[in-house]
């Protein structure tokens, strides 16, 4: 069997053990030489891994959308800051989205504060610097989460690759066993 | 979405014994391959963004310098002078080029590692293992 430290689970992902020797693996009491049973169990395990992978991929996708959103907000704050320091009181002329089909003109006076949408129908006024800091922190957190998910995905991938190889080897073992049986019969 | 297709498969007729070490190599191969696909998708996105920027830059060259254009910034459009817009575009383009170069570097380093593992695994398992990507 593989080394034991690999058994430590990663974000609740159960490890898949490498089978060193198929012959003794199949002969163990829980398997009893029944290839169909073992293959069924491996198949079930494989499906579980695939399901976990789908979950992680969905999470990763959500973060991948969220990060650019946050970065765009941060860019806007930088723009307002630049506008505040560089211009002498003139207004920023913009077109902003009213609804999906409709844009309207808006002029923005130099401003020290912005409102950040915190969720749950709450918006809070922040100074430009505070807002920039908050958004940067959120971006960092999101990136860290993304990294954790990547690592979990890597680990998960190892587990189902191992499972796939185990399946192929057990199958192979069974084919050989049956050939030997036919020959001796 | 990235392809999560397993790229390595075994021929059940295989007679070669697989060691724990081989399994680790196969796992690593699958991992690298998945990363490789992710990066390839990412570079594709950057390339099309770059193309859009190039188009915008050449479009701006044709316009009157005293004119104002609407420049897309986040979710809004900003009125900018042509020269100002040009500067912003160039800056954005340079940022993108750096990012794209970084990704290209990652891709080629992954490719090297993949090729090395591939050579090793083929040497051991020959035609009993299948490691090609599905293009």
Automatic annotation (TrEMBL), chain A:
Gene Ontology biological process: microtubule-based process; protein folding; tubulin complex assembly
Keywords, ordered alphabetically: Chaperone, Coiled coil
InterPro entries: PFD3, Prefoldin, Prefoldin_subunit_alpha
Residue ranges the record marks as coiled coil: 132-159
Any Pfam family: Prefoldin
Domain of life: Eukaryota
GO cellular component, one term: cytoplasm
Entry GO MF terms: tubulin binding
Assembly: Heterohexamer of two PFD-alpha type and four PFD-beta type subunits.
Functional description taken from the UniProt entry: Binds specifically to cytosolic chaperonin (c-CPN) and transfers target proteins to it. Binds to nascent polypeptide chain and promotes folding in an environment in which there are many competing pathways for nonnative proteins.
Family note: Belongs to the prefoldin subunit alpha family.
Name by which UniProt lists this protein: Prefoldin subunit 3
Organism lineage: Eukaryota, Metazoa, Ecdysozoa, Arthropoda, Hexapoda
Automatic annotation (TrEMBL), chain B:
Family matches, as PANTHER family: PREFOLDIN SUBUNIT 4
InterPro entries named among the record's database cross-references: PFD_beta-like, PFDN4, Prefoldin
The protein's name in its UniProt record: Prefoldin subunit 4
Single GO biological process annotation from the record: protein folding
Coiled coil segments of this chain: 29-120
A molecular function (GO) term: unfolded protein binding
Pfam family of the protein (one): Prefoldin_2
Species name: Parthenolecanium corni
Keywords on record: Chaperone, Coiled coil
Cellular-component GO terms for this entry: cytoplasm; prefoldin complex
Top-rank taxon: Eukaryota
CDD domains named among the record's database cross-references: Prefoldin_4 (cd23165)
Function: Binds specifically to cytosolic chaperonin (c-CPN) and transfers target proteins to it. Binds to nascent polypeptide chain and promotes folding in an environment in which there are many competing pathways for nonnative proteins.
Quaternary structure annotation from Swiss-Prot or TrEMBL: Heterohexamer of two PFD-alpha type and four PFD-beta type subunits.
Family: Belongs to the prefoldin subunit beta family.
């Amino acid at each position: 069997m593989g080394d034991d430290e690999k058994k430590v689970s990663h974000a609740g992902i159960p490890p898949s053990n490498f089978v060193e020797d198929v012959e003794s693996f199949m002969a163990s009491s829980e398997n009893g030489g029944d290839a169909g049973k073992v293959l069924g169990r491996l198949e079930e395990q494989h499906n579980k891994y695939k399901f976990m992978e789908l979950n992680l991929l969905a999470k990763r996708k959500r973060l991948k959308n969220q990060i650019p959103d946050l970065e765009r907000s941060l860019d806007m704050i930088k723009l307002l800051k630049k506008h505040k320091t560089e211009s002498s009181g003139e207004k920023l002329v913009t077109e902003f989205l009213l609804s999906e089909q409709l844009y309207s003109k808006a002029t923005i006076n130099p401003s020290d504060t912005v409102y950040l949408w915190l969720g749950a129908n709450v918006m809070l006024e922040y100074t430009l610097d505070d807002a920039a800091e908050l958004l940067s922190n959120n971006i960092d957190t999101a990136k860290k989460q993304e990294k954790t998910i990547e690592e979990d995905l890597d680990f998960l991938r190892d587990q189902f690759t191992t499972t796939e190889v185990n399946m192929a080897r057990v199958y192979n073992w069974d084919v050989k066993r049956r050939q030997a049986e036919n020959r001796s019969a | 979405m990235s392809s999560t297709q397993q790229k390595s498969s075994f021929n059940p007729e295989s007679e070669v014994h697989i060691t724990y070490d081989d399994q680790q190599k196969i796992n690593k191969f699958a991992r690298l391959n998945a990363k490789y696909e992710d990066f390839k998708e990412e570079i594709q996105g950057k390339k099309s963004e770059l193309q859009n920027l190039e188009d915008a830059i050449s479009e701006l060259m044709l316009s009157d310098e005293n004119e104002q254009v609407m420049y897309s910034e986040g979710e809004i459009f900003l009125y900018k002078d042509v020269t100002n817009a040009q500067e912003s575009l160039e800056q954005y383009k340079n940022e993108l080029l750096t990012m794209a170069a970084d990704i290209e570097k990652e891709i080629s380093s992954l490719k090297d590692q993949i090729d090395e593992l591939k050579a090793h695994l083929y040497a051991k398992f020959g035609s009993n293992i299948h490691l090609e990507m599905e293009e």
